[in-house]
Amino acid sequence: MPAFFYKTKINSAKFIGTVFTLLFLVSYKPIFQKLDPIVLQPQALTIIPKEFFIAKVVDERTDKSAVAWLYPISNSKQKLVLQAVDFKGGAQLAIQDFIFESLPRDKKLRPIVVRIKECKVTETAVAPGRVEGKVAVALAFDLMNDVGNIHLTDYRLDTKYARPDNQPVNIVEPALRESFVSGLKFFNTWMNSQANDNPKLAKAVKVSIQDYHEKPEGDTIYYAANRPLNWNDFQEKAPNSKYAATVFPSLGFDEKREIVNGVIKIQLSMKIYVPKSACWVKDQDRTDYTLNHEQRHFDIVAIVGKRFEQKVKAMKLPVTNCDGPINVQYYESFREMNHLQDQYDAETHHGINTAEQERWNKRIDDDLVALGVKKNNS
Questions:
Q1: Per-residue DSSP letters for 292-348?
Q2: Is 73 exposed, middle or buried (0-12, 13-18, 19+ CB in 10 A)?
Q3: Four-point Cα dihedral 98, 102, 107, 108, nearest 10
Q4: Is 165 helix (H, G, I), strand (E, B) or coil?
Q5: The whole model's pTM is what?
Q6: Which pLDDT does position 309 carry in this prediction?
Q7: Burial tier of 5 (Cβ tally within 10 Å: 0-12, 13-18, 19+)
Q8: Where are the alpha helices (DSSP H) in 133-235?
Q9: Which of 20, 279, 341, 374 has the fewest CB atoms within 10 Å distance of its CB?
């Protein structure tokens, strides 16, 4: 069998270059290290919250791509290049886990939401062999509420550090950790100072109501069972009118508020009143019957005022908007007052219908007794 031989001419320069390239690829190591994600290390804090616990953390940063832009360690003189580095598991989960593991959580206390407004570390090469880092952390603290969170206060800390560019980037995690620890300590101090006096942190609302009185009596008559109207109270000149007399009773209240040991105490002073300068009577109509009809207008307002008091006292007022339900009920009572006044005049024909007037007299007296305004003399 014939033998076949193949001859190959080798370009020695090309061969040597190829071998060198392969050796370089085998022995090549990256110039820059790949930075690992940042892992916040929990630590037992010296503070024990007595007014709150952290319920959750929310990330509200506009840029969530990373938390740090850092220079890796270089093993050459090549120009350093920033790397984007994030928390392991993402900022929201990492910070929340850190807080949950570092700070006691008594869920019987007020629930607080921590909103991350900013969390950023940026390094700059400021000189040959030297790197400077800027740490910016901004937090917002909200009180959780059934009707919506209530913003309480804000915290911000801007710090700097410096390191040689050939040393490990191990200063970033402690710097961030200390920023969050400082924020928690700040908020704990803020809560301790505000818990008893800040209306946003009130735990309950207590209402007390009393009748308003003014001494000496001026132009305004404030309702009292032992102070009925008399003809001297009708001080306005009588106009040319088809009616015999007119009064203008109304209701309102003054409000005082204070916070004592975290309880909002509201004191209402009820004003059931008639201005003398707005009341008038024709001379020929100054009779007991006419005066009784006008007195009953005043009594109706007193009845509505007492009903208003009862409804307010029965309310379970929210601490976040305790005035809201009170004001709503006031406007409802004001409408009730106007409705009853119109009904009273319509059914009695402004006092002309004596039978209806007597029926209303009894109805009003019964209501005044039932509400505790008058004693039952029967």
A1: HHHHHHHHHHHHHHHHHHHHHHH----SSSTHHHHHHHHHHHHHHHHHHHHHHHHHH
A2: middle
A3: -150
A4: coil
A5: 0.72
A6: 97
A7: exposed
A8: 172-194
A9: 20
Angle (deg, nearest 10), helices 323-348 and 288-314: 150
- According to the model, what pLDDT value does residue 38 have? 95
CA distances from 97 to 57, 175, 188 (A): 9, 17, 18
Reported as a single tens digit per residue, the pLDDT across 152-176 is: 999 999 999 999 888 878 899 999 9
SS3 at position 134:
strand
pLDDT at 34: 84
DSSP readout, 258-295? Answer: EEETTEEEEEEEEEEEEEGGG-EE-GGG--HHHHHHHH
Looking at the domain that runs over 31-199, which CATH code has it been given? 3.40.50
Q: Does residue 63 surpass a pLDDT of 80?
A: yes
Quickly count: other Cβ atoms within 10 Å of residue 201's Cβ. Answer: 19
Helix, strand, coil share of the chain (percent; to 5): 35, 30, 35
Distance between CA atoms of residues 367 and 363, nearest Å:
6
Q: Which two tokens stand for residue 239?
A: 């106009």
> Which residue in this structure is represented by tokens 């003014």?
214
- Report domain extents, the chain: 31-199, 202-370
Higher model confidence: residue 224 or residue 127? 224
Q: Which of 146, 144, 170, 42 is nearest to 94 (CA)?
A: 42
